[in-house]
Amino acid sequence: MSEFDPSSPVNISHSASVPSSPSDRRKQILAFARANSAIEVETLAENLEVTPQTIRRDLAELCEVGLLKRTHGGAVLNDGISNLGYDARCCLKVSEKQMIAKAAARLIPPDSSLFVNIGTTTEAVVREIAAYTGMLVVTNNINVIEILRGNETVTLMMAGGKIRLEDGGIVGKDTAEYIEQFRLDRAVIGVSALEEDGTLLDFDTQEVSVAKAIIANSRSVILVCDSSKFSRSAPMRIGNISAVDYLVTDREPSPALVQHCKNNGVELVVAVPEPRVEVAPLDIATRQSL
């Protein structure tokens, strides 16, 4: 096994030269993981100009020393303490979040009341319902207000508390107390990690208290969660998925989590890409008649 020092700096820009040694290549893989959380074998192989088999060997070594955790088709950073930055999260699983958002939006009727908490996936859901009429939306997410403020038929209510400038989230004791004044039809919530036994996890204890208040004061809870959350970890416990009514995700979870959802009456919704509509080209006679 070649010597590997994960603390050594590495340039991960597109202009960086292809690493010449296995040790340098593994440093660059780790840097990609730190920047993006989830990494895929095929993408790494293309960027680093090696075979997928070589990348799999590299990932096996990084997982062996506890720096990464293997996932289907790649790996994730083995860090259960700190979350990714907001900008990085916005760039992750974009198409999957859009599919999840479309599926979740079908569970929300117009003219209803809705909690929305912090998260890039919950924001994607709000974009899907931005044209709905007659909604009452209560949120601790400044980005949700920005998305909906152009809709004059929507009543928007913002929780007070400490503003996290990094992502526009509002958290703290005051925020949770504000949420507890309401009893709304539905909630759209996100989490940082979801374990096989249904445990919902996050990174910020103040954010956890707000999420608990939202769940407790909603008649129906929709958890939106892309599949990368199944292999992540976080230190703070929100609760269990048994308190949720719907889990909307982009890939079927493990059999254990699927069974846990069934046992607790949680409806699993696996979003799928919308079918492409193929438009047949016009024949020459039709084109000439137009």
Detailed description of the structure:
The longest helix is centred in the N-terminal third of the chain and has 15 residues, at 22-36. The protein has a 7-stranded parallel beta sheet, sandwiched between helices. A 3-stranded antiparallel beta sheet has the order 1-3-2. Strands 10-11-13 form a 3-stranded antiparallel beta sheet. With 290 residues, the protein is α/β, with parallel strands linked by helices. The model is unreliable at 1-16 (pLDDT under 50). β2 and β3 form a beta hairpin. The protein has helices spanning 22-36, 41-48, 52-64, 86-90, 94-105, 120-128, 142-148, 173-179, 205-216, 255-263, 284-289, and strands at residues 38-40, 68-71, 74-77, 113-116, 136-139, 155-158, 162-164, 169-171, 184-189, 193-194, 199-202, 218-224, 236-240, 246-249, 267-270. It contains 11 helices and 15 strands. It folds into 2 domains: 22-77, Winged helix-like DNA-binding domain superfamily/Winged helix DNA-binding domain (Arc Repressor Mutant, subunit A, Orthogonal Bundle), CATH 1.10.10; 86-270, Rossmann fold.
Offer a concise description of the structure:
This protein has helices at residues 22-36, 41-48, 52-64, 86-90, 94-105, 120-128, 142-148, 173-179, 205-216, 255-263, 284-289; strands spanning 38-40, 68-71, 74-77, 113-116, 136-139, 155-158, 162-164, 169-171, 184-189, 193-194, 199-202, 218-224, 236-240, 246-249, 267-270. The protein is of the alpha/beta class and 290 residues long.
